[in-house]
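notes to self, project folder thing:

trying the whole complex as one job this time. last attempt i did each chain seperately and stitching them together was a nightmare. two parts in total, labels are on each line so i dont mix them up again. if this works i'll redo the older ones the same way
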Amino acid sequence: MDMDRSDSGKPPSKPHTVPPPQGRAPEDAFDLWLQRGLHQLYDSVAAEPIPPELLRLIEADKTRDKT
Amino acid sequence: MPNEFHGQLITLLPRLRVQALALTRNRAAAEDLVQDAVANALAAQNSFTPGTNFAAWMHRILRNRFISTLRKQRETTDIEDLPAGAFAVSATHEDRLILKELGQAVNRLPADQREALFMVVLQGMSYEDVAEATGCAVGTAKSRVFRARRQLQTWLMGEESTGQGRTSDAQDGRERRAGVGEHNLFA
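result (full assembly):
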């Protein structure tokens, strides 16, 4: 996922971090940061290959249905 | 038609994996949960009506399997078990620390809130889809996501927690459809 690097990885509006992007309410800025952070953490999970044994389980059932 | 059922199942596997991780917070347990849910679905495929919402049907099976497993054994999950990919991306040290903090905060959420948050934010599901997939009212699905976001903001922004993130669905209505034990897991 292409993320805007200009906001870095920091959550918005923390006293010691950069302020939220111009024109965005704090809640919107946090939601945007949260969305990016969650994608960064978990997108790789969905992208990993499906375990072969799981595919074999499904294929075996499909084959059994045909017989 | 067997091919359509099995094809839909294979297509849905990545989403099931994300849902399983949201519920278990543990990679190995998530893989096991997906496999168990798939086995359950294959055994019950005759109960699925072709043309209806397959994804919702399958998500419900996985969720019910998770609840059933927890009833049998009170497993503790490793809240430190974050996806390895979190640190595989090119990021500064501070970015990695913040991501780790986010991951730990997410793992502290009640399972139903985390599950709903993942479905909406990561998978782009509508609240209606989330409600159907998790067996709750649309308002409850919205509330779960709202509370999850609010609780994360409270934790991560360094504000005092009001404890409201731990409220159960009972405070939002009477849409409880899960079985015994869910209140222990999801509040």
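what i see at first glance: The two ends of chain A are 43 Å apart (CA to CA).
need to look closer tmrw
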